[in-house]
């Protein structure tokens, strides 16, 4: 007889709605694979109407999760808003609807604490939710258990329209997913305590200057696309399927709660460009005036084009305050030209007609915006200083530099340390640019010096004073 072994057990229970106020800490109302959703006031009051009339209310689905050897939590797979609405009513955060007038004319507008004793007793003892308790997949660190829980959630949402990013968000074992959630979402999840966190101090300020909402995870999708660009070193296919594939390919057995992806060169570079992007647009008048975001940065394909232009400039040109100011001014000018979309403006017409998320169309936009940017600089009498294409000194050059400085750290000498303390062993020696490469310094002997590892690492992109040369 065909009889596959079930992957989990379901136990049916009846839960008084009062449990959701009295024992709120026992419930994980927003699991890590779900988004925080909010019902309208009308929808909440419709639920209260159904409860008071004893109408059918769909069963809630709860998973038993083991927090440690002695404690469990109840994770809400389905029923987040039904539970939240019950708690809000018991907390006096929402009143009963006018629709209950035909049952009792005194009910509409009443909060829980305003009800007479007999009605409060009715609420406490008679209002209940039927629940299916899922047991046997209770390890929150087990990738298979979390995948099953997420599968149950998805299948229960068949009547809902989940976006591709909401599905990707549930890939808890993906290292890139964890990075994207950490830096692009407003909310978080504490896996150690296994509880949701309704704020996220790690969210990157990049998202504070763009005028795009995140109600359907638009910020998470955008950050994933930026990671793909960095991995491909420029324009690439970033369609919905490409975003999903990128999240999926970074799934690991030890991925749940694992934040190590941020140490990858791709991630570090994206964070650097995003910070530079923020540093440009935080000076915008709209930000200074408290408007909340730069209105020009609203359309995703426009934002992507501005980002890729900035990434290119950071890679090949010296970048400082004057360059940031010029870039901000250009963005305003280019956005106005893009918005006007004049029929005889061939470049803008081509730019606007290549709005798809394919490598080819993004490359066309990238070439156009780069050309227009440098035309803009020329018209303003401005120019950018290129970086030296060669960053590292050759072995022969390193030997000459070491001999020229007699194997002494020039910063240690500047600090007037004893000669013995200035000696740098060959194996610990770094050939350093006097004028940093990032500030336009060339990779030539005349712009080189011996530094010990301490001074090389602590120097950063600063130009030494005359006293230290």
Automatic annotation (TrEMBL):
Annotated CDD domains: HNHc
Sequence ranges assigned to domain GmrSD restriction endonucleases N-terminal in this UniProt record: 28-172
Ranges of residues in domain HNH endonuclease: 430-468
Keyword annotations: Endonuclease, Hydrolase, Nuclease
Domain of life: Bacteria
Cell inner membrane found in the keyword field: no
Signal peptide: none
GO molecular function: endonuclease activity
Protein name, UniProt field: HNH endonuclease
Biological source species: Enhydrobacter aerosaccus
């Amino acid at each position: 007889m065909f009889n596959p072994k079930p992957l989990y057990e379901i136990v049916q229970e009846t839960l008084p709605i009062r449990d959701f106020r009295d024992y709120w800490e026992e419930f994980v109302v927003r699991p890590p694979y779900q988004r925080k959703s909010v019902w309208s006031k009308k929808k909440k009051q419709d639920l209260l109407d159904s409860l008071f009339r004893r109408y059918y209310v769909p069963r809630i689905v709860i998973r038993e999760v083991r927090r440690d050897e002695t404690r469990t939590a109840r994770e809400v797979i389905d029923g987040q808003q039904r539970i939240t609405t019950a708690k809000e009513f018991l907390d006096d955060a929402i009143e009963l609807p006018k629709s209950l007038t035909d049952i009792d004319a005194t009910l509409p507008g009443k909060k829980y604490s305003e009800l007479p004793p007999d009605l409060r007793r009715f609420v406490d003892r008679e209002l209940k939710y039927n629940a299916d308790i899922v047991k046997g997949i209770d390890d929150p660190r087990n990738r298979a258990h979390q995948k099953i829980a997420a599968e149950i959630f998805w299948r229960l949402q068949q009547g809902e329209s989940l976006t591709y990013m909401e599905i990707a968000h549930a890939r808890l074992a993906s290292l890139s997913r964890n990075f994207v959630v950490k830096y692009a979402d407003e909310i978080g999840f504490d896996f150690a305590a296994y509880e949701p966190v309704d704020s996220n101090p790690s969210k990157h300020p990049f998202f504070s200057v763009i005028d795009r909402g995140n109600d359907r995870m638009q910020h998470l999708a955008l950050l994933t696309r930026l990671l793909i660009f960095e991995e491909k070193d420029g324009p690439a296919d970033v369609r919905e399927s490409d975003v999903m594939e990128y999240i999926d390919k970074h799934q690991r057995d030890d991925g749940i709660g694992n934040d190590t992806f941020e140490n990858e060169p791709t991630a570090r570079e994206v964070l650097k460009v995003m910070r530079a992007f923020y540093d440009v647009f935080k000076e915008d008048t709209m930000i200074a005036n408290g408007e909340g975001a730069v209105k020009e940065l609203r359309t995703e394909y426009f934002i992507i084009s501005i980002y890729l232009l900035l990434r290119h400039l950071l890679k090949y040109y010296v970048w400082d305050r004057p360059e940031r100011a010029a870039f901000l001014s250009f963005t305003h000018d280019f956005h106005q030209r893009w918005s006007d979309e004049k029929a005889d403006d061939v470049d803008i017409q081509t730019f606007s007609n290549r709005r798809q998320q394919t490598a080819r169309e993004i490359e066309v936009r990238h070439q156009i915006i780069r050309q227009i940017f440098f035309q803009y600089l020329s018209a303003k009498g401005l120019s950018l200083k290129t970086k030296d294409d060669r960053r590292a000194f050759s072995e022969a050059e390193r030997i000459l530099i070491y001999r020229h400085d007699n194997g002494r750290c020039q910063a240690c000498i500047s600090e007037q340390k004893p000669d013995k303390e200035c000696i740098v062993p060959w194996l610990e020696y770094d050939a350093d640019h006097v004028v940093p490469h990032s500030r336009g310094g060339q990779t030539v002997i005349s712009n080189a010096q011996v530094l010990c590892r301490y001074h090389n690492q602590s120097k950063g992109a600063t130009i030494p004073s005359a006293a230290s040369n």
